[in-house]
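Email to the structure team, subject: Opioid growth factor receptor (OGFr) conserved domain-containing protein model.

Hi all, the expression group asked for a predicted structure before they design truncation constructs. Nothing fancy, just the tokens so they can compare against earlier work. One-line instruction: predict Opioid growth factor receptor (OGFr) conserved domain-containing protein, return tokens.
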Amino acid sequence: MSLPGDVREFLEGYPRIPDEPSLNANLEFYKNARRCKPDNLLIDALHEQWKTDYQRLEYKHGYIQWLFPIQEYGMNFEAQPLQKHEIAAMKEDPKVLERLERSYEMMLGFYGMEVVSKETGELRRAANWEARYRNLVRAPHNYLRISRILKCLSEFGLEQYNAGFLLFVLAEQSANQQLNSQTIRSSMDRWWANCLRGEEERKWINETIKKVRNQSDFIFTEDAYRDALRRRQETGSFKD
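Reply from the structure team: attached below.
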């Protein structure tokens, strides 16, 4: 199965998109110095006010392009595509990266998950996981959001979170029959699993997903999930 065009562009680093040095909306937003549009909030206020406002997170749409900027236009044309010079500046600012992690944790809560380890990217179910999982299964517009989130995390060198998310969802599907709808599997197999630039990790994750899909006697357990993340942290590779 061929990769979608947006994924190919992402994996190649968007070579046909030039940098525009005069554009700094994402950098300024993440420095808490510019309000997002159309919601007119600084990022710190958005995190504080919307963290558990799941109705707002579900039915508002313009905020996701501000919280997770990538080098593509989204549905909010009041947001600015991420510029290459912004990536460099934002990666050098610990406060910016802290806010990006906070954005990720907010969306994880919306999806019924929470971070166990920032070092490995390990996740677990949140206390309200049942209701949030049900919402994720029945609200497929979130699957495009997840693709954007994963691309953004990769742009900023936070791919432990990509791996932690993908393999957590896989373990939920394989061992627990959760988040296992056809639409989620389709988005995961074609888009999400390819939204990380580390080639070896991407290959291993895709191979593991295929084993789960094609071998009925292969179960990717929660222990296997934690072991994989531990190997990645200790050796830099998922391989045994």
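Residues 3-233 form one domain. The two ends are 27 Å apart (CA to CA). Ping us if the truncation boundaries need rechecking.
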